[in-house]
Amino acid sequence: MSEIAPALLEQVRKMCADSYWCTRVAAYAGFQGDAAGVIDCSIHPDDQMLLHSLRHHQDANAAFSQYFNVGLQQYRAFRQVYSLLGIDRRPGAAVLDFACGYGRLLRFLSPTFAEGAIWAAEIQPEALAFVRDRFRVKVVPSAYEPGAFQPGRSFDLIWVASLFSHLPGRLFHAWLARLKDCVSESGAICFSVHGAGLLPTGESMPPEGISFRPFSENADLDADAYGTTYVTEHYVREAVRTVCGAQFDCHRIPRGLAHEQDLYVIARCGELDLDVLKGFRYGPWGWVDERRITRDGQLFLRGWAASLDDGPVRQVDIRVNGAMHACATGMPREDVERVFGERCLAGSGWVFTLQLERPAELRVEVTARDARGEAALLYAGVLHPEGSDTGVQAPRSEMLALGRRAAARLRALLGFSPKI
User: Fold this and answer.
1) Which of 69, 178, 386, 417 is 20 to 30 A from residue 78's alpha carbon, by CA?
2) What is each CA distance from 278 to 162, 202, 250, 269, 336, in whole angstroms?
3) pLDDT of residue 407
4) Lowest-pLDDT range of 108-112, 163-167, 356-360
5) Distance (Å, whole) CA 15 – CA 109
6) Considering the entire predicted model, what is its pTM?
7) How far is CA 265 from CA 43, 84, 120, 176, in A?
8) pLDDT number for residue 217
9) Rounded to 5 degrees, what are φ and ψ at 197?
10) Beta strands 118-122; 138-141: pairing state
11) pLDDT value of residue 114
12) What residues form DSSP beta bridges with 253?
């Protein structure tokens, strides 16, 4: 496992403390004006999601961008499930972010809910203490064995991002059974999985419909209880039927979590209309593969942007030291088409160049926005001219650093997965 230079962690810390970047992140979450100041962008230095991105990219800007891009998408997915099901209209509704990690989602939830409405559960004590203190949510410790999890109450929505995507079969069933007993009669559980289509190339799914391997990006957890898991839709539906019984409905949102993991929503029959989830919107997505200031004083950016709802976005918005520029898409990206299996995404590529009067430090932000105005943060960071002494990374193509990274388990972080 590659080491992370302390300077990279310090650079991310400074970005998280920079009011400019905090305000920009808040804007993508829908917070404007004074409300933007309520978003706490602090990231714990041991947050495995950040560390994984830093090890992969060896670039603080890219890691910051990926961390918040995935967090913002998870927040949008959560808000849609919460509102489409009508849970947002229930007085006193309570939500549990189960396996919350260091709070990549909670930082956006806590300012929008009444005090005491958001609960968090996590097996890592230091992570639980961090989200309690930073995001002011109620917390309850989790455990390796489901029977030891005792929240002492039920919840209207239990959100489980990227836990079942790591569980062996026994714990997959056992946690489903335990959480089923923690949801209210008219509540729902939403959990994510790695679908069978994400299996690394050349590997086949076992007949039982689940493939588990004892390794993950989180070396702090027991690999036999938390590894990397791929499942078929049949496996998930049979697990729900076996554990919860025929009285539970089940709805699948393919690639609903960060355009990578499938989301499954389950609820007691007759209590909630899960068909409304057909209105789920994926929103725009993409990545900036190359970003640099060349020796001859040119800003060069290359990437892709698209929407699983509407196909390629027509342009990306690029903010350079506050000045806005539009860059049309339409360039060939067969790799994006191949990863998502959508022919309409083949023209999602774009390239942007800007000749600079005087090469200098640049604050760069790249946004994908669809026809409905939905936006995704593709990149945010400070770039320096090549050859300067700032430790700028040499460019490399990451295409699906937010795309398919089977072998690296980042089938879900790939720029995609949340809890990975």
Assistant:
1) 178
2) 21, 32, 13, 17, 24
3) 31
4) 356-360
5) 21
6) 0.90
7) 29, 12, 19, 12
8) 60
9) -65, -10
10) parallel
11) 92
12) 263
Per-residue model confidence as pLDDT tens digits over 40-85: 999 999 999 999 999 999 999 999 999 999 999 999 999 999 999 9
The confidence score (pLDDT) of residue 80 equals 98
pLDDT above 50 (res 410): no
- Answer whether 47's CB lies under 8 Å from 102's CB: yes
Residue 393 pLDDT exceeds 60: no
pLDDT tens-digit readout, 290-346: 999 999 999 999 999 999 898 889 999 999 999 999 999 999 999 999 998 899 899
Residue pair 367/377 in contact by the 8 Å Cβ criterion: yes
Find the radius of gyration of the CA atoms of the chain.
Answer: 21
For residue 416, the one-letter residue type is: F
pLDDT at 406: 31
**Residue 220's pLDDT is what?**
63
Cβ neighbours, 10 Å, residue 134: 17
Residue type at 56? H
Q: Which residue type does 311 have?
A: G
What is the pLDDT confidence band of residue 419, given thresholds at 50, 70 and 90? Answer: very low
Structure tokens at 378: 């593709």
> With contact defined as beta carbons under 8 Å apart, do 25 and 75 qualify?
no
* CB contact at 8 A, 165 and 264: no
